[in-house]
């Protein structure tokens, strides 16, 4: 960063090849030896999407998630996709950490922020998710699984209109193993996958969040592989989605995401990102 211009390759070489823990130590060492904040210096030197990637890499995951949620609800309009991607996919412990960081960094609870920026049943689903109350045991109650499947069927396909509360009660509270059994039972009853019924019964953001919940329960890596593919498919790139997933999942399940991406689309994630070019994507390619 010294002098005119910025050596982007050097920044990528250092930050994209280090773990999150190592980057925190680099930030501390930079402040000790230079007497300035590394993130602030990089922010003033860089711009655009490359700046977003680099600053994201310097944040611990809960801090980055809280930052992304805050940005999604900033100003006019809301980036519902960001709220869905994060809230539908995080574990209870991850969600509790995000809630703690959000309150500390932004002076209000994440629940208050979400309630102030969303409405209706979509809001209620998000609030249920961010309370981090999902059962995370491995227990499967066979009788309850059959009842849950029947309740969902009767709340949607078997009636005029849809009782979304019943979907919320089952999909946002039960543990993963139990819900996988519910999905199997549901298919026996309705003759279609739960995802197909959600698409038939709902629309807009509510459809999106329920589909995300189901897909994450089936396979988080497959869910994120699909999100990455759609962010780069067709004309242009949805850079915010691409950046958010690559930065936030880099040390969690990126290897699994890459494996699912190749299996689902017949091309490597690396090759998909590579054709985009540019410093931002060179950085993301290393992460991937």
UniProtKB/TrEMBL annotation:
One of its GO terms (cellular component) is zymogen granule membrane. Its main location: membrane. GO terms for molecular function: calcium ion binding; calcium-dependent phospholipid binding; phosphatidylserine binding. SUPFAM superfamilies: Annexin. It is found in: Zymogen granule membrane. InterPro entries: Annexin, Annexin_repeat, Annexin_repeat_CS, Annexin_sf, ANX4. It comes from the Eukaryota. It is a peripheral membrane protein. Keywords: Acetylation, Annexin, Calcium, Calcium/phospholipid-binding, Cytoplasmic vesicle, Membrane, Phosphoprotein, Repeat. It holds the Pfam family Annexin. Gene3D superfamilies: Annexin. PROSITE patterns: ANNEXIN_1, ANNEXIN_2. Belongs to the annexin family. PANTHER family: ANNEXIN, ANNEXIN A4. A pair of annexin repeats may form one binding site for calcium and phospholipid. This is Annexin. It comes from Oryzias sinensis.
